[in-house]
Amino acid sequence: MSEKIIIVHLTSSEPIKAGKALRFAKSALSHSSVVILLLSAEGVLVADKAKPTFTVPTTQMDALDTIREFIKDGGRVFIGLDDMKSLNIRAADIIAGCEQAETSYFFNILMSDQAVIMSW
Question: Are 67 and 95 in contact, with CB atoms under 8 Å apart?
Answer without folding.
Answer: yes
